[in-house]
């Protein structure tokens, strides 16, 4: 009975006006504290986001240089702009695309700082590495392989069946920064004791697409190219397969390199992020097939040693001087 009376007194005490006011005040304080904590969290989130945005905005845009893989600059820009956008999103930094119309020019732009990252031919990379310390981070894959071939082509009706038949004929190289269009065929001719300027009736230096077109038209007797370009031009209907015949093919060559300037190469954290972004391209292509041109299936991480065959050819021809 005593316990019941005590409980009743306690209940009456808790329900007294003073106590109800105390509890109400305490509840208000709790609500106020929660609101302040929510506000503080919101402030921290917004401030952090703004600081990150300012930090990213403060970083200069990365300049991505690409060679003229397509017939003209406009088509080349349209082809590789998705890759620039992808890298910008993955690296959380603006990436500006610029097409350089010669392989030699692209190598020079990477060497002199006009370009930060470049998708370039192997010989152009070796030149940029030799001259200015540029470093390869990845190699592009063609049909799943990090290699391609230099070729020599002629018209099937030219009467030319092998390089030995080219004496006194017209012949076209690519520009002097090209691997398959210049360095590798030049190296081959040297091993055969052939001086192009004396062996051929006329020597030209022009773009890969022009070589294939002029050979199929019979304007040129023969010229140097690479299998990927010939395949692409046939698939795009720019030349007909029956009007182009391969008379020579090189050993496998390391595919095009993604290289960075010496300054960026020193930032190991950036290199790791770039390699990671490029290594994921293969999977992304399954849902975004226009990220790369047809037959290009992603990238694989590679270092300078992978391009030793190109460097050796450059040294053998005397174009590259040993340091």
Structure description:
- This protein has 13 helices and 13 strands.
- The protein starts with a helix and ends in a 6-residue tail after the last helix.
- Helix 6 (179-191) crosses helix 13 (308-317).
- It has helices at 2-14, 17-58, 73-91, 103-111, 122-132, 179-191, 196-199, 208-216, 227-235, 262-265, 268-279, 281-284, 308-317, and strands at 62-67, 95-100, 117-120, 135-142, 147-148, 150-154, 170-173, 202-205, 222-226, 245-249, 253-254, 257-260, 296-301.
- It is of the alpha/beta class and 323 residues long.
- It has a six-stranded mixed sheet, sandwiched between helices. Strands 8-7-9-6-10 form a five-stranded mixed sheet. A two-stranded antiparallel ribbon has the order 5-11.
- The longest helix has 42 residues, at 17-58.
Task: Please outline the helices and strands.
Elements: H1 2-14, H2 17-58, E1 62-67, H3 73-91, E2 95-100, H4 103-111, E3 117-120, H5 122-132, E4 135-142, E5 147-148, E6 150-154, E7 170-173, H6 179-191, H7 196-199, E8 202-205, H8 208-216, E9 222-226, H9 227-235, E10 245-249, E11 253-254, E12 257-260, H10 262-265, H11 268-279, H12 281-284, E13 296-301, H13 308-317
Parallel strand pairs: 1-2, 1-3, 7-8, 7-9
Antiparallel strand pairs: 3-12, 4-12, 4-13, 5-11, 6-9, 6-10
Helix pairs in contact: 4-5, 6-13
